[in-house]
Amino acid sequence: MSTLAISNYLKDHAHQITEEWLTERVKEPGSFYSNQASPDVEKLLRKQHQHTIQLLISSFDQNDFDFREKLDEWAQTVAKSRVEHRIAIHEVIKFLGKTRTLFWEYMKQYIDQTNEDVCKHQVSEWSEMLNSGFELMIVKFSEYYHEFNEKRLTEHQALIKLLEIPLIKICDKISVLPVIGVINSERGLSLLNDIPMKCSENMVESLIIDLSGVIEIEEVVAFQLTQLVQVLNLMGIESFISGIRPEVARKAISFGEEFHAISKISSVQEVIGKKNNQM
Fold first, then answer.
1. Per-residue CA distances from 118 to 5, 11, 13, 64, 110 (Å)
2. Is the N or C terminus of the chain more exposed, i.e. has fewer CB atoms within 10 Å?
3. Is the Cβ–Cβ distance between 79 and 144 less than 8 Å?
4. pLDDT per position as a tens digit, 89-107
5. How far is 228 from 188, CA to CA, in rounded Å?
6. Among the ranges given (48-52, 145-149, 207-211), the one the predictor scored with the smallest mean pLDDT
């Protein structure tokens, strides 16, 4: 019996395999693969599952280059979709496993129905083709899933970083940098690297670093803030620190003289008043 014969049988039943796979889903609240998923999700699952079946069928072809080309396209499409929908990789692999099981059931169905004799060697060869193709699919999918997921995390971290360091313009040439939460060395380095550029882009002449929302500050961060003020001064930008909380002030006693030399103010109005007097 030829491999082409079983390949054609699977092609003829591809739609049926997909519909059976969809039917076997169960109620799983919140799951992408639930039988109660939205019509749009079901439409997407049907389309991608049909793509999956066609790829598995192509693993029986002799043209390995054609299979690997289709594999790359499939892996990118499915991985991107699952990352965008925030589906855990183990859940994806579980449902891909169900596809392999169902696919194999249809292969056995063909073997049982055919009038030709099928030797054990032929069945073993088909099984190896299926398993080999499936394993390549899992590996390639995992590679792209990791790549897209890392990219998504990087983008989210960049957005969080941007939101963590807002530069608020309060009047002409004067901006406030409100810092909230715990300042660790990593966050202090972000301030040192990003704020000078933001000040330059916004043509800031005076910057108020407001620490009223800071509940804890490390000594190394005090050094980084000192460096930030020094960099801004070299750029011609006047810098002030405001809103130091009592608990932070007590810890700040042990900080270096350069930190204590930074101009401290009690309120934003103090800087505005100072600027108005200079005009």
1. 12, 20, 20, 24, 10
2. C
3. yes
4. 999 999 999 999 999 999 9
5. 9
6. 207-211
